[in-house]
Amino acid sequence: MFWHRHVTRLRKGIILCTAVLIGFSIHGITYLSIPKNTQSSYDYDMTQYNKDMRYALTANIMNNPGEYIGKTIKADGTFFSYPEGKDKWRYAVFISDTMGCCSAGIPILMNDDFQRPENGAAITVSGTLEYIEYAGKQQISLQNTVLTVK
Amino acid sequence: MSSIQIKDLVVGYDHQPAASVGTFTVSKGEYVCIVGENGSGKTTFMKTLLGLLKPVSGTVEFNGICSDEIGWLSQQTAVQKNFPASVREVVLSGFAGKLGYRFFYTKQEKQQAENNMKLTGCIAYQDQCFRELSGGQAQRALLARALCAADGYLLMDEPMAGLDPQAQNTFYQCIEALHEKGMTILMITHDHRSLQYADQVLSFAQEVKIMAAHEYLKKVKNVG
Amino acid sequence: MLDKLLMYLQYPFVLRALTAGILIAFSASLLGVILVLRHYSYIGDGLSHVAFGAMSMSYVLGIVTQKMLIILPITVLTAILILRVKQKKVQGDAMIAILSTAALAIGYLLMNVFPVGANVSSDVCTSLFGSTSMLTLSSGEVWASVVLSIVVTGMMIFLYPRIFAVTFDENFAKVTGMKTDQINLILAVITAAVIVLAMNLVGSLLISALVIFPALSAMQIEKSFLRVLILSCILSVTGTVIGLFTSILIGTPVGSTIVLVYLGIFLLCFGIGMLPD
């Protein structure tokens, strides 16, 4: 008899916990206004994220650029460059997930006096995401880029 | 008048004959007992009657009977033993065949289910989980379900299995009461007590024979 | 750590992951109760492997953006084959195993033999394990999961008495006048649709778990079919939320984390179920 009340209470406890958790998540999303990330001066400081989140954010930036225009980011990644015609190079930073299974790249714009590191070099970049014209279409790219080779 | 007509029926599994049933008619309101040794083909016959098995040869014709008038009490299947469902939900599901274009059960159906649970004596544990019932308790619940589904025709396969003598008596009285109200009853049974209520007996012995109940009783008395 | 979580919750792609994750968990766990009770627990895994095979077939044929035109029909037909065709020689679980392993093998073989480009290997990774696919959903995919959960919920509500009758005792339902073939067909089609969509969004690993774990956990505790369905939904949504938040915070893959949370919930429910009443 005592056990019966015990079990019912435990069951109620589970349901209560789940209700609290669901309530918390809804509350967290809708009511709390999150202050600007005071830890970092960037909107999205990917160096603070775990690898899957870094890849996810990069892929999202490239797939839904409208949500990220004007934002500042900082990221670790792999440098990549390829020539376009004569004397012109295009650059990108590639960011992959933990398993190295998937990776996505963001085009980066550098000054004319930029010294290209090797392809595959580990770099850290930071800058602002803006649109540029490329091949007749709007393409999101990293501008005012500060690049450091690790 | 509605009836079940059986013509030159041979029943079996996968074209392998198990029993040659022959030709006869079950009229509305009759009480037929089906007796015979284990494995003589009684359950196969009932399943063929219900359309779950194809006859090896011959035909079964339901004249003027729709399948939503039939109630069936089978032996329990494996799913039912572990299924999380309350007894009330199980009994109410007897009305599923009558839903037609409706989505949900009506108040009358819910009331009828409750009446049937009272009739078979399982109302006391209607909220209990089906899988926690004893064999006899489950049997009563399934009989209540069969009653919900039966709108004139009740087919049962060894309904007394697992019931104590007192429960069996209540069962017989309940079924006889239904019979008096016009329910057609086909029952596979090992219990010769049921024969006192029956109109006809279908005996699965060396041959399958149908005969009037008093004839069968005479035969049995002479042999035994 | 809490403020880090709140920061992440601001990101649109995290919100999309949360929304789609909750909706898919909800739909899949409802179906899961029915499938587990019919001893088709492994159908989530089986059908998603078939969908994977169909996906690689469509890539090989060069159809990338419209791949659903190939994947959905093949998966639905397979679901119908498994759930509706009743023959005695190959039982349900063996049938799933045959189709599932064959499809996975065919899919992988096709991808290796026919060159299909780099995007494909990432699709392989995400469709099987789904970690990153869940965090890179488009709004369209979220809307698809909204529509899907409305359809599944509607079906469960309006067809509830029939679904109960068919799942509890199909023979009885058929004998007493129910058109069981229709119900089985609807269930097969909806199951296939949910699994195909969920595979693209959360990966095969997670969809298999979503179908099995919440249903089994709820069955350890609850006593009536309706309550099992409700508790199954609550547990699946809770598990997804906890798992998603945890994986974002500590950097573990999303799919695996959610599955392990489900395992924990199942063990907890099993323990509670063992306590004398």
Q: Could you walk me through the main structural features you see in this protein, from its secondary elements to its overall organization?
A:
The complex is a heterotrimer of chains A (150), B (224) and C (277). Chain A contains two helices and six strands; from the N terminus they run H-E-H-E-E-E-E-E. Chain A has 150 residues and is of the alpha+beta class. The longest helix of chain A is centred in the first third of the chain and has 29 residues, at 2-30. Chain B has seven helices and nine strands, in the order βββαββααααβαβββα. Chain B has helices at 42-50, 78-82, 87-92, 107-120, 135-149, 165-180, 213-223; strands spanning 3-13, 16-27, 31-36, 57-63, 70-73, 153-157, 184-188, 200-204, 208-212. In chain B, helix 4 packs across helix 5 (135-149). The N and C termini of chain B lie far apart (38 Å). Chain C is mostly helical. Chain C contains 13 helices and no strands. In chain C, helix 2 (12-37) packs parallel to helix 8, helix 3 (43-60) crosses helix 11 (180-221) and helix 11 (180-221) crosses helix 12. The chains are: A alpha+beta (150), B alpha/beta (224), C mainly alpha (277). Chains in contact: A-C, B-C. The A-C interface holds A 3-4, 6-7, 10-11, 14-15, 17-18, 21-22, 25, 28-29, 32, 34, 37, 49-53, 55-57, 59-60, 63-64, 67, 97-99, 101-102 and C 3, 5-13, 15, 18, 121-122, 125-126, 131-132, 135-136, 138, 221, 231, 234-235, 237-238, 241-242, 245, 247-248, 250-251, 253-254, 268-269, 272, 275-277.
Largest sheet of chain B: 6 strands, mixed
The H/E string of chain B reads: EEEHEEHHHHEHEEEH
Name the shape of chain B in a single word.
globular
- Radius of gyration of chain A using CA atoms only: 22 Å
Q: How many strands, which pairing sense, and closed or not: the largest β-sheet of chain A?
A: 6 strands, mixed
Protein chain pair with the most extensive contact, residues per chain: A-C, 36 and 42 residues
Please state the average pLDDT score of chain B: 85
CA(first)-CA(last) distance of chain A: 68 Å
Main sheet strand line-up of chain B: 5-6-7-3-8-9
Tell me how many strands of chain B there are: 9
- Class by SSE composition of chain B: alpha/beta
What do the pLDDT scores of chain A average to?
Answer: 79
Number of domains of chain B: 1
Q: Low-confidence stretches of chain B at least 5 residues in length (pLDDT < 50)?
A: none
Fill in the CATH topology of the largest domain in chain A.
Answer: OB fold (Dihydrolipoamide Acetyltransferase, E2P)
Strand segment count of chain A:
6
- In percent terms, what proportion of residues of chain A is strand? 35-45%
- Binned, the helix content of chain B reads 25-40%
